[in-house]
Design a protein that fits this description.
2 copies of one chain form a homodimer.
Chain A lengths: L1 E2 L9 H7 L9 H17 L5 E5 L3 H12 L3 E6 L2 H12 L3 E6 L8 H10 L5 E5 L1 E2 L4 E2 L2 H10 L3 E5 L11 H4 L3 E5 L11 E5 L1 H9 L9 H11 L8 H16 L2 H22 L15 E5 L6 H10 L2 E2 L1 E2 L8 E5 L6 H15 L1
Parallel strand pairs in A: 1-12, 3-4, 3-5, 5-8, 8-9
Antiparallel strand pairs in A: 2-10, 6-7, 9-10, 11-14, 13-14
Helix pairs in contact in A: 1-10, 2-10, 3-4, 3-8, 5-6, 11-13
């Protein structure tokens, strides 16, 4: 099966080889060296001097971490789809008040809307933004949104789950307080690991936080990283080894710009191919995601049927998400996808919709 | 390096092979089948009709889960070492009141002590017990302790992290409400996955819990398991594949009793070997752990030195934990340890201490 999933995505061969390495103690010298190197590579990748922590969790675990460490009472969630909604749900289930700035499905959060919202709700402490909303294939204008958040002096959490590794993220320049992803997206690693950069302001907030719990306590991550180059619990060693390996590959193969070029090239091929079949994309023009293409289903076939029939042909795409399950299907552009797979996938799709 | 660690432990070859499998979606039919099978095998292994959930976390994550789902105000932590202390810390950091029943290092919690404590503190809602306290190599008398907890009508949480898979655990017969472990101990899987059986009483408590959060919400685990044979976030697929594989191996190789016999045989060999060198064990006689041997360091060499010098000889043991770092060293008996490795390790240890 050739994968065009939205996560877990297909992993490159060198990553899978790394996953089968024999284990060793997370308190050993060998582990500490790998941990240190992985963190430094992520800092370079994100162009940040903030600390970067490694979490034994999925990306959603870091949503919970931001809420518990950095929000005392109230936060704002910008919602462009299912994962923005999840952020709000995580906030409320942790007892916080959540303001919502929700756009119609397929429309981005704009700087104007955000500015207006923050002016009328000056008491929110932090703003959560989904950079790339996987459920609708939409990329929010993060650099502009970040400026608005900083103008209002709020903490900024960025869910970069389906963005980091496939599209630029300048953490310090843009002023992101917590920027996180999980392993199974653009980095092309199996699931089980999340990573996040955490600013000094976020850590200060964590220091004051009450009842923040143990598992996601930023201050404990900081302490163990500084003192032991490790985590306060056992980390997912295979996924960390694999991520370290892949970050090394990115560095030796021309750096992150080269990687972003590959993503651009593939997404153009996918987008042009799909449109060439007379199909249209779901999100508003100009905001299409570079990592996942959300396609309106053709009149004769439902999105779900496209998904099932493509599977029969050996291609695992992604179903439409939630209320878009029938109306759309999605084509992932993350992880290990050789360019010739894209041609084959488009050919199979052509046979299906013609 | 031959591993006698206390986790992550060495994994058998079939587990490492499974770890390198190409990924697939956690919403696919293939994943659902693996998830369902893993859960059913764990239920058989634990002799329980309770639900068993798979957590994208370390074992300590499930400590946090029990506290947040099932404790409204106050719990009792039985402490025989570092991991009992951790449980108390997790309770307090989540804003709960924690009563402590702490024994001297190396001494077990006895049913008499527990009965007395519960009689004088009738307002605790739940009792947490570390079955096997890894830090001191001690096995608490769980079946007898469980009877006391149930007599007092309290919820029972069992940290079975370094026990499950190496020693018997009868969840329903003993009346354990939440019984958990992580992958990197007796099952011999890499770290990144925790598993727990959760009783109906625990789920009822979770239903009433306020501000319990999203990531560790038992009711969400239940919902997604029932409706989708999956989890509400992306699970650590490689570790689940590997655990399923290994549980299958245990079943086809004569069942869990056969596996426990292997653990008994190895631990006897280790214990007799160590004592044959004139060394003594740290914990109280009769309560020595079947999965990790905590050895008093010889007079001439500190525990830390034993650890370092054994490393030079190609054997990774475990350092003493916390305040026992100088006074003890530990020999793990978990995961992939062929019997001949035990002989070689004991020979190297003999050369060192003679």
């Amino acid at each position: 099966m050739k994968l065009f999933t939205v996560g877990p995505v297909a992993c490159p061969p060198e990553v899978l080889e790394e996953m089968k390495r024999q284990m060793f103690s997370h308190r050993s010298k060998e582990y500490k060296e790998v941990h240190r190197q992985t963190v430094e590579r992520l800092q370079r990748f994100l162009e940040t001097e903030n600390q970067v922590f490694l979490f034994p969790s999925s990306g959603s675990g870091v949503m919970e971490a931001t809420v518990r460490n950095c929000v005392e009472r109230k936060m704002l969630c910008c919602i462009s789809g299912a994962f923005g909604k999840r952020y709000a749900q995580v906030g409320e289930s942790n007892g916080k008040e959540v303001e919502r700035l929700e756009t119609m499905l397929g429309k981005p959060t704009t700087p104007e809307l955000l500015d207006e919202k923050l002016s009328s709700s000056p008491d929110v402490e932090a703003v959560a933004i989904t950079y790339n909303e996987t459920s609708v294939g939409l990329l929010n204008p993060l650099p502009e949104l970040a400026k608005v958040v900083k103008k209002h002096g709020k903490l900024l959490f960025v869910d970069a789950v389906s963005a980091m590794g496939g599209v630029e993220l300048k953490v310090d320049e843009w002023g992101i307080d917590v920027c996180f992803t999980s392993s199974q997206k653009c980095f092309g690693i199996p699931p089980g690991l999340a990573v996040a950069s955490v600013s000094e302001d976020a850590l200060k907030q964590s220091e004051r936080a009450k009842d923040k719990g143990w598992y996601f306590d930023f201050k404990l991550y900081e302490k163990y990283q500084k003192e032991q180059s490790s985590t306060h619990m056992t980390p997912p060693v295979p996924q960390i080894l694999a991520l370290n390996k892949e970050l090394g590959v990115i560095e030796t193969e021309g750096g992150k710009q080269k990687r972003f070029e590959l993503y651009s090239k593939r997404i153009r091929k996918i987008k042009e191919g799909v449109e060439g079949l007379g199909l249209s994309l779901f999100p508003q023009k100009g905001y299409e995601s570079p990592t996942v293409t959300c396609v309106n289903a053709p009149k004769e076939i439902s999105g779900l049927e496209v998904y099932e029939r493509m599977r029969e042909r050996g291609f695992e795409l992604a179903k439409g998400y939630g209320e878009l399950k029938e109306r759309t299907f999605r084509i992932g552009n993350m992880g290990y996808i050789p360019l010739e797979y894209v041609d084959e996938m488009l050919q199979a799709l052509a046979d299906l919709v013609k």
